[in-house]
């Protein structure tokens, strides 16, 4: 296999890139190696050397613990439990949350061989105790695995007398009923509140 084909195959394995997109990216990199390819190689090498999982929350950062965990502006008694680092980044991008996070590293899935031991469950309990957490916000996905994981977390932290909340669910901003699935509409009706 030649070098260009190998590059295209590696790029196509990245999320959001199929074979055609990978070829376009490869072409853009190879056509301007000094402006695009070399800086990308340097950034990838730097990230590989310096970026690690935060020992506290499981975020990716080049400091230990991560900048979020170190921030004096964060509320350490609030802990948002999420599946992946991408979820943390999305919540940070949205703004408005000032507590800390706990990245589980996946959801419970016996079929895929992921039980509590494969996730960051014990460190969650340790953090709840250490930080004297008063609220745990469940932000796991609205899938069967996400719901099972959320229930497992509830069972773990309930003995520590914390308030347990769940992210709201239902109709998204700008959403039209015609385009929503039945489960989302049902969840929206069940989670309705005073206007």
Net shape: globular
At CATH's second level, what is the architecture of the largest domain? Answer: 3-Layer(aba) Sandwich
How many β-strand runs? 6
CATH topology of the largest domain: Dna Topoisomerase Vi A Subunit, Chain: A, domain 2
Present the secondary structure layout:
Elements: H1 3-12, H2 19-31, H3 33-50, E1 52-53, E2 60-61, H4 67-70, E3 75-82, H5 85-94, E4 99-103, H6 121-130, E5 135-139, H7 144-157, E6 163-166, H8 182-190
Parallel strand pairs: 3-4, 3-5, 5-6
Antiparallel strand pairs: 1-2
What does this structure look like?
With 195 residues, the protein is α/β, with parallel strands linked by helices. The chain folds into two domains: 3-50, Orthogonal Bundle (Helicase, Ruva Protein, domain 3); 60-166, Dna Topoisomerase Vi A Subunit, Chain: A, domain 2 (3-Layer(aba) Sandwich). The protein is built from eight helices and six strands. The chain has helices spanning 3-12, 19-31, 33-50, 67-70, 85-94, 121-130, 144-157, 182-190; strands at 52-53, 60-61, 75-82, 99-103, 135-139, 163-166. The strands form two sheets. Strands 4-3-5-6 form a four-stranded parallel β-sheet. Helix 7 (144-157) links the parallel strand 5 (135-139) and strand 6. Helix 2 (19-31) packs across helix 3 (33-50). The radius of gyration is 21 Å and the shape is globular.
